Amino acid sequence: MRQSALADDLISIPEAARRVGLHADTLYRLCRTGQFPPALQIGARWRVSVPRLERYLHADARDTSRHHGPLEVDRRDRDFVTPTKPE
């Protein structure tokens, strides 16, 4: 496979996030925690294989036995502190 053909099959995390409808920061977190299999770490950078992304998304559409899809994330901000009422 030619080098340019391989490069055409890889997209950035922000581009992948646009394609799947998530914020790029969320997708970076999923990559770091190993929860987004189409992602590849090349040095310090993350890239997403387009063919793997398409298989991943289409496999989820066919597999209805799972309770949670692979891109279903907890949208609550873990750093958010709920204000308490003064006593």
Topology:
Elements: H1 3-8, E1 10-12, H2 13-20, H3 24-32, E2 39-42, E3 45-49, H4 50-62
Antiparallel strand pairs: 1-3, 2-3
Write down the overall geometry: globular
Note the total helix count. Answer: 4
Residue runs with pLDDT of under 50 for 5 or more positions: 77-85
Overall average residue pLDDT: 77
How much β-strand is present in the residues?
5-15%
Question: Using only CA atoms, what is the Rg?
Answer: 16 Å
Structural commentary:
This protein has 87 residues and is α+β, with helices and mostly antiparallel strands. It has a domain at 3-58. Helix content is 41%, strand content 14%. The chain contains four helices and three strands, in the order H-E-H-H-E-E-H. The chain has helices at residues 3-8, 13-20, 24-32, 50-62; strands spanning 10-12, 39-42, 45-49. Strands 1-3-2 form a three-stranded antiparallel beta sheet. Helix 2 (13-20) crosses helix 3 (24-32). The longest helix has 13 residues, at 50-62. It starts with a helix and ends in a 25-residue tail after the last helix.
Produce a short descriptive summary.
The protein has 4 helices and 3 strands. It has helices at residues 3-8, 13-20, 24-32, 50-62, and strands spanning 10-12, 39-42, 45-49.
